[in-house]
């Protein structure tokens, strides 16, 4: 898969691109005819997010600590994900583990990306994440890729969605893409795994491309649509 940026005059309706939950969106500009052929700027992209209500998240327990985003850190979930249809259940299990065993208010991460590039809402971005490793996550925008990347490899869809999240954070919070690191860069951990860590330069390059070009809008899916999408993911249809 990959991005296919439709030019304005080619777009008649939002189009879902591949399985990374990206859609191109048309500009509001009317279609005009011109004798001078000037390349249109590409349409922006929409990265859709499955809200917590749709993936079955438990309520927040306790209180969050507020922070300002100053950097971006990439993680893996650390659990081998053989079949992507298990991703929503894994997310629920991880949230339970983080709340019950770790005593944290919510899932540790702000966003999670499954192997097919679907993006799931985690804890609010304005809230500091959590970790059981030796670094302070204050200021970190936490992107987690579902999987165990010392023993499996991230998919192109997954990397694309992670890049989209970074590009969005660049726009939304003004955080530099030069701050994107792997968890292992700041703590004693193998996270985000060797194979995902090896792809970080490509993720950063792709995020630059998205930020410099069309830009990425992060859009939370309507509950009913998101519930349907989660059902499709869990049945292996998408
Ligand atoms: Zn991590």
Keywords:
238 residues, alpha/beta, Lysozyme-like, 28% helix, disordered N terminus, binds zinc ion
Beta-strand segment tally: 9
Strand content: 15-25%
Ends distance? 13 Å
CATH class: Alpha Beta
Multimer state: single chain
**Into which percent range does the helicity of residues fall?**
25-40%
User: What is the approximate shape?
Assistant: globular
Q: Say what the CATH topology is.
A: Lysozyme-like
Please indicate the count of domains. Answer: 1
The helix tally amounts to 6
Q: Find the structural class using helix and strand composition.
A: alpha/beta
According to CATH, the homologous superfamily is Peptidoglycan recognition protein-like
Bound molecules: zinc ion
Evaluate the radius of gyration.
18 Å
SSE string: EEEHEHEEEHEHHEH
Low-confidence residue ranges:
1-39
How would you characterize the largest beta sheet?
A: 9 strands, mixed
What's the CATH architecture? 3-Layer(aba) Sandwich
Mean pLDDT score = 87
Short structural summary:
This protein is α/β, with parallel strands linked by helices.
